[in-house]
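Recap from last week: sequence in, structure out.
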Amino acid sequence: MDTRKLKYFLAVVDHDGFNRAAEHLLIAQPSLSQTIASLEKELGVPLFHRIGRRAVLSEAGKELVGPARLVMRDLDAAQSAVQSLRGMRSGRLDIITMPSPGIEPLTSMIAAFTKLHPWVRLNVGAAFTPEEVIESVRSGSSEIGLAGSPTQIKVPGVEVLELERQPLILIVNPQADTFAPKATAIQRGDLGGHRLIASQRGSLMRWLVDDALAHGVEVEIVVEVAHRTSILPLVLAGVGHAVMPSSWAPTAHKAGLRTLLIEPVNYLDVAVLSRKENLTPAARAFLDVARSHGVEEN
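Predicted structure tokens:
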């Protein structure tokens, strides 16, 4: 089995079929099919079920995805280690992040990293739960993950670097701002009678809203939003207030919106996740930037 076959196999997985994978790899589709057939013959099992024009992973194919990604990642690490002897002048770093850490601290860390290593290309993917981030790092799909959780993340086999704690704030709808003009904080009970834009269930922000409701605070969830990029525009449009981590405050302020700390304070713990070994030089350099960020925060 050679790495070319694994590369082609992952391309079919990542591009949802042979045609798109062949276009991505810049090869003819029959050549790609022959390579996958050769890999299946070596392994003695089918990796895909052909259903019409679709290619669906078999159980054996599903089992191969994780190890194949690790092999390709380790190959990248070996190549990068050799290249690093003449300076980090190329390379790619795959990062996965949840929405709020993806605003901050990721923005600040990417800005610092790209100044130090301008030739490294960063690819940032999206996740919505800590479990998605953990799985992506474990499987090798991403080298670096940023996750936010109500409690500190502890995962066997994964390096966890605690970065910061982001308090939850209220981003205030300017068309329904009945809070004290000079206030910087409100009590959870002060949300009563207000219309809120809520994150999906399972998030800390949604938990705070649901907990307020459970304790008799009469708030109205007017919109439930999965894609959090919609939240600030909805607040600006006067749809409602929004409960978000403090990482959103600078952007909200630039848009002319007011923010208030919600007491008692709940925190989103933000951490960087990575494999414990066989990281590329780019990943190790990014972790150095992350550690510096943590020191500055402290």
